[in-house]
Specification:
- The complex is a heterodimer of chains A (265) and B (172).
- Chain A is an alpha+beta fold and 265 residues long.
- Helices cover 31% and strands 29% of the residues of chain A.
- Chain A contains five helices and 13 strands.
- In chain A, the strands form two sheets. A six-stranded antiparallel beta barrel of chain A has the order 1-2-5-4-3-13.
- In chain A, a hairpin with a 2-residue loop joins strand 3 (125-128) and strand 4 (131-139).
- Chain A is globular, with a radius of gyration of 21 Å.
- Chain A starts with a helix and ends in a 9-residue tail after the last helix.
- Chain B is mainly alpha-helical and 172 residues long.
- Chain B has one domain.
- In chain B, helix 3 runs antiparallel to helix 4 and helix 6 (111-134) packs antiparallel against helix 7 (140-165).
- The longest helix of chain B is centred in the last third of the chain and has 26 residues, at 140-165.
- Chain B is globular and about 45 Å long.
- Classes of the chains: A alpha+beta (265), B mainly alpha (172).
- Chains A and B meet through helix 2 and helix 3 of A and helix 3, helix 4 and helix 6 of B.
């Protein structure tokens, strides 16, 4: 026993280092890219109010207020338009402001100024000018944390064109204007510039929402499939206002997803 | 009493500045990460024990992680840097060793000592941080670019901050 104590005393620095590293790494693995739990909610609430304050200081012109009003109006009009056309009568929209966003990391995220009190819940899609942006993964009372398309840890279900094959969209880090489509059949017919839209399978977005276009780079062969580079439609470096999509039945669709951890079924 | 307050101030102030301001800034198109809280770690007195350094490093990193929703990334890197501080201090020690009054500042130890120490420790921190963040072999090249850019630019920034805020009292 005494020897053990002597050993601990002798190597106490190394032991404390290992202990702290174990704590930090488990925290990192447990939360990175898909943070959840009470501490995230608390942190989000605190960070959200501070970011809101910063955002208010930053907003010196009336243009920002006007933007918000227009965005809210857009959201209402879009929902009405879909209802009139009968295209997506099950989707409703709500305007929100991005008060924090990162685009230079591997696991980027967004914080928006709408939370559970405003009806925001996990799994809601974020869009801007009819382009897919990301999805909500955590909501505190007045703020929500979302993962954008440019997050290496998540995959998105998309379709090439209106009736083309469904594939997985993955952002591979680095360039925020490029992502890659995986699992595209070699028999698929498509051309440079063809649109890539949401499939609607994951329940985050309505189907047909613009995600990007087929890029000029040559696709890579991967067995029976192609890996196709995509030019993303949204500019993630300058996102300020977004709309939250509520797809009716989204909770049920997501509950049916066996993994529901950001990857496709 | 005053000097003790000054020590606490110069260790804690960079952390507060980082949490409230610098974490929101993006420099050089995302290639330069300015971890201002690291200046606080660099300014912990030379006489501090390795255990104390680890405790402060872990606390600083955890606070930054909580504020930036990074979940353990900064804690892990700061603890690694805190472990390296005594070794780097020994490596750069004057022949006769450190005096009890020596402080890890430009004013006390001179610009060359501070620059080399900051470069070595920031390099160690950034290698750990960006490698962990990259998480994939194919992103290591880009991560190393960020390590180099962040180490050089942050060292320059810390030098400027110290030169602008501290009076030159003595050089060794």
């Amino acid at each position: 026993m005494r020897n053990l104590w002597n050993l601990i005393v002798q190597y106490h620095v190394a032991l404390v280092f290992i202990l702290f590293q174990a704590l930090a790494i488990s925290w990192f693995i447990g939360s990175h890219g898909y943070p959840r739990g009470r501490w995230v909610q608390r942190s989000l609430a605190w960070q959200g109010s501070w970011n809101q304050q910063l955002s208010q200081w930053d907003r010196r012109s009336e243009l920002a207020d006007l933007n918000r009003e227009l965005l809210a109006e857009n959201a209402t009009l879009r929902a009405e338009l879909h209802a009139v056309r009968g295209e997506a009568p099950t989707t409703s929209y709500q305007a929100a402001e991005v008060i924090r966003s990162t685009w230079n990391r591997g696991a980027n995220y967004l914080v928006i100024n709408r939370g559970s009190a405003e009806g925001v819940s996990r799994g809601q899609g974020l869009l801007r000018n009819n382009k897919a942006i990301g999805r909500v993964i955590e909501a505190s009372e007045h703020f929500a944390l979302a993962l954008p398309l440019i997050n290496q840890e998540v995959e998105w279900s998309v379709r090439i064109g209106a009736t083309g094959p469904v594939a997985r969209l993955v952002w591979e880090g680095g360039d925020v204007t490029r992502a890659v489509l995986y699992d595209v059949p070699r028999s698929a017919v498509f051309a440079v510039g063809d649109s890539v839209v949401s499939s609607g399978f994951q329940g985050y977005f309505p189907a047909g929402l613009m995600v990007g276009n087929i890029a000029e780079e040559e696709p890579e062969f991967d067995g029976q499939f192609l890996n196709v580079p995509v030019e993303l439609a949204a500019d993630f470096r300058s996102i300020r206002y977004v709309e939250l999509a509520s797809v009716q039945g989204q909770t049920e669709v997501q509950a049916l997803n066996p993994s529901n951890t950001g990857t496709l079924p | 009493m005053n000097s003790q307050l000054l020590t606490y101030g110069r260790v804690l102030l960079p952390l507060l500045l980082h949490i409230f301001f610098f974490q929101h800034a993006t420099f050089a198109g995302g290639w330069w990460f300015l971890g201002f809280h690291l200046l606080g770690l660099l300014l912990i007195p030379l006489q501090a024990s390795p255990l104390f350094l680890l405790l402060v490093g872990a606390s600083f990193g955890a606070i930054v992680d909580a504020a930036t929703l990074e979940g353990g990334l900064f804690m892990s890197s700061a603890v690694w840097m805190a472990l390296a501080i005594p070794a780097v201090n020994r490596l750069l020690a004057p022949r006769e060793g450190y005096e009890i009054t020596d402080q890890p500042t430009i004013a006390s130890m001179g610009i060359r000592w501070f620059t080399v120490r900051t470069l070595l420790l920031l390099f160690a921190h950034h290698v750990w941080l960006f490698t962990l963040e990259a998480g994939r072999w194919d992103l290591l090249g880009q991560a190393f670019g960020k390590v180099m850019a962040s180490t050089l630019l942050s060292t320059t920034a810390f030098l400027l901050v110290l030169m602008l805020t501290q009076s030159q009292r003595r050089k060794r």
